[in-house]
Every structure is written in structure tokens, then in C-alpha cells.
Protein 1
Amino acid sequence: MVGVGRRAAGVGVRRGVVVAAALMVVTGVAGGDRAQAWAQGRGLDARGGGEIGSEHVRVGGEYWVSMPLPDSVSAEPLTVVRARWLHVPRGLRVLRYGVTDADHDGICMLGVGDDAAFALAARDVRALDERPVRVPAHGRAGACLLARVEVTAPVHDNLAGYRVWYRQGAVVYRQDVAREAGLRLRPEEE
């Protein structure tokens, strides 16, 4: 009887290990930055921050919101592989993230828009995983990160802070950038 009890306990322990391993795999597949311990990055100049926005959006509208990529402060080049807003307020839904080239002066369109200028700048938006952004050492990216958002209801808070994942050598780093984007309804729609 004692041998059977030990054997049963061993099976229980193994079963518990298998369940724990399965949960870790499911968590990893589900994504999110909690699924992996990312190295904290310091390669981007994330100080200062700033705010962009528009007070003329409408419920049901879709808009491109720029996510200005800070300059590199690293002595080595880096490659941005992912970005996302950290705080998306009620009334907004992020549809997708993308990247497009900066203009011929290396300037990114700042702000929020659905007008012709943004349409022109956004005509060549590609997913970041299709086209990672290479940033030279102590340089500018030459590309603009964008988020396509849909206004689903009146918005009373800002998109706030975004997280950038970048690769230097074989290591992927995560770094937060202090920026905000405010989208408010046109006065006649409130």
C-alpha cells in the first residue's frame, strides 16, 4: 500500500508540472509583455514627452494617430520591432499599428488625422513586423509609427504612453515613451 501511495503522489506531481507547463505555453501564446521578461531598454531618448491631438473627431470615425519615435541615444544601432499604446481610454479602439516613411526631411507627421495630408502619409503604412524600423546609433529613425484608431463613443481621456520593443544584437529590449494623444468630439457632436 505504501508503494501505491508514493506512486500515486508521483503521478500527481507530474500531472501538476504538466498543467503548469501548459499554462505557461498558453500565456506565452496569448502574447502581451507579461508573458516574457523583457530587458529594460535605455536606447531611446524617451524623456520630455509631449501631447498631440484633435478636438474634431466624430463617433464612428477612424483616424491615424502618430507615435513619434524618439531619437537613439545608443552607441549601437537598434531595430524597432513592435510598439503599442499603454493606455487606451474608453471610447477608443486601436485597430492596428503600422509604420511609414518620414518625409524627405526626416520629419514625421505629428497629430491626429483623416485628412488628405494624413491619407498621403499613411498610404504606405505597413505592419511593423513586416518592416521593422532601423535606427542608427545616435540618430533618427527615418520612419513614423502610427496607430489606426476608431472612435466608438465620446472620449474623455487621452491615449497615454506607448511601449516600444527594439532589438540590439540578439537582445530584445522594452522601453516606455511618455507621449499623449487627445481625441475629442467635434463640439456639435457632444
Protein 2
Amino acid sequence: MKNWAPVFSVASLLLPLAAADCDKFTFLNGTDASGQTEYYNNDFTISSYINCTADTATQVSGNKTVCEYQPYGAGLVAHPQIRNVTISDDDDREDIFELVQEMISDKASATTNFNLTIVMNHTAGITSFGVGDSGYVAFMPMMRCWEGTLSDCDDDDNLEGKTARVCGLKWLDEFQSSKDAGVQTYDGTEYFVGTDTGNGIQSSPPYSDVANQATNDDDDSAATRSLVSGMAVMIALMSLACAVLL
């Protein structure tokens, strides 16, 4: 009979893993299920340094007035954000993103990517520059954010009652999520940044060089939750059966 004690112990450890760290996210005033759009916290350089002079300009209408740039598929590595609270563990961050995704509107959920690491494949649309222009092309992605209060949290998380602003990267439309990652299009603004020198300008790497950094947290977390839940239920049933027999 004493040999079954560890079974109860293991079951008690596994059962809490099947639940999220916090069960509620209550929108604050001014925030609703649709969320609010804002820019990502930094832009990405998606071209090399360009210095368009009369000597380098292409022939346009008989006048050397325009330089043309050959764009490439830049790999932009970005991350959704949880602001106002510090959550360093990736599993805990994943739980918060999943919780918020369950609370937001269907349209917002279909156009927001909460994967922990997102790699965008972005090709510059700005491809020509006038003589006298010098600088580079940049892209600033858009995010969709929700601000709310976390509650019904695990005691050891220290998140109960904390206010968090949770943001995911914004797809251009609801059709992007069903596409392969390398052809998904993200909402944002592209612009030319003028500068007289190319010193310190680091172009983003090609998409193919960083594509493997992307995560698909929906599939991974669902599989993990299913596995943990199944193990917990199985052990609990074994424990119950043993108790009945004894």
C-alpha cells in the first residue's frame, strides 16, 4: 500500500501543469476586444546604404536623374511583447499570449501573430531614388495591443492583479495566417531614411538565413498541454483505482 504514495505525488505535480498561469485578463477602460494598433518598438533596415549621384544614376527619359535599387527578401526577426510586468520564462509568456488570444475578437485574433519569435520575409517596395538622395530603406511593423489586469494567477507567479499591455505582430489581413511563414505579409510602414554616411548601417540578413529562428507556438503549446493533461488524467485514474482496490 505504501508503494503507491509516489503515484499520488507525481499526479499532484502534473495536474497544475495542465492549467495556465493566469485564467483571466480583464480589459482596462479604453481597451476592448478589438485592441489598439501601434508601431513596433524599432524599425528594420531592409536595404544597403544608397548614395545616388549623377554618375551612378540610371538613364531615365534621357536624363540621369534616378538610381534603381535591386531589393531582396529581408529576414526581420521580431517578438510579441508583454509590457508593464516582467515575465522572463518563455512558457509563462506563451501562457499569457494564449490567454489574451482567447479573450480578443475573432477578427483581431485572425490578424495578430503571438508566436514568441516571428521572422518576416519583407522585400522593399521602394526601389528608386533621385540624384542627391543618400540613405537606406526601413520598415516599421505594426502591432495590435491590449491592456488589462491579470487575475486568478498561480501564487508563485506574482502576477495577480498586475496590469499588462500585451501586443502581437499585425498581419496585413485575415488570410495571412493560413499561408506559409515565408510568404505572409505584415502590416507596417516603409520609408526612406536620409543620412550622409553609411557608417554603422547594418542591413537585415536574407530571410533564408534566419527563417529557422521562427517558432510555431500554437502547435507546440497545444501538443504539450495535451500530453501533460493526458499524463495527469492517466496517473489520477491509476491512483483512484489503486485507492478503490486498497
Protein 3
Amino acid sequence: MKSLISSVFILTLTLAGNAFAINKTTGGALAGAAIGAVTGKSVKSTVGGAVVGAGTGAMLKSGSTGKAARKGGAAGAVVGGVAAAATGKSVIKGVAVGAGTGSLVGEATH
């Protein structure tokens, strides 16, 4: 089982490198979804990984688009952390998903 996970992880990194050459947001979403699917147990893990990966890719963009994504990510992290703490969920996971979502919103509204 460990060798299967290692193989899938290496394949994911290889494919993610090719996807990053196309678009950082898309590549991040693909890499995050693949890692979420490998390490998680449900579709929710895959979707969460895709959101975090896409947000990370958006924040890595240069110029004003990346700056807007980073600002959105910071605001989203605060909102996600507070919402997770208020509902009794994992604050770290709330911050990660909030930052990913916020950076995508920041990029889209730019």
C-alpha cells in the first residue's frame, strides 16, 4: 500500500509540473486534487485539495493578478479560521481552505 501511495505521489508531481507550464492555477488544482484523492478518504478530500492547490497556484502568479490573489488569500484565511473555530472544526483546515478560496476570489475579481 505504501508503494502504491508513493508511486501515485511521484506521478502526481510529474503531471503537476507539466500542468504548471500551462497555468499555475489549473496546475495547482490538478496537483491538489490528486494529492487530496491519494491521502484522503472521500470526494470532500479531493475537492478540498483542489481548492487549496488552485489557491496556491493563483498566489504564485506574478504581477497584479498574483497580488490580488495573495490579498484575497489572507482575508480568506482569517474568515476560514474564525468559521472553523466557531463551528468546532479544525482551525488549520479552515485556514487552508479559506485561503485557497479567498485567493481564487481575489484572482477572479481582479
Protein 4
Amino acid sequence: MPKPNRTPDHVRLTAGEKTRLAWLVARMAKRGLADPDRMVGTVDLSDLQRRADRIYEQAARRQEAAAKNTKRK
């Protein structure tokens, strides 16, 4: 069985997940503005990107579980 596609384009997000992602994007923008060398982009955003990836992974797992539950009924 092929592995499901967990890209952000194929995952349905709840309102809470969208809110958390919006907050993370705002934090990334705030860090970017605080960067002393804005043209080069020396600020590390990897921790916020990992958190966003986790939100997408949780949403994908929730979506897969919901699909399994509807198939059983």
C-alpha cells in the first residue's frame, strides 16, 4: 500500500490547527524583522518549521484515522 501524501496541500486542517499555523507564521515574520542582516536571512527558523511540520503530521494522522473509522461502519 502506498504511503499517504502528507504535504500541506493534501491535509485538511481544523480551525485550531489553522490558528496555530498562523501564529507560527507570525512568529517567523517577527524573527525575520528582528534579523540584523535582513538581506541574508541569518535567523534560524528551523524550530518553528519543525513545529509547523508536526501540526501537518498530526492533521494527516487524524484524517487517516477518520477515513479508517468511516470505512468500518
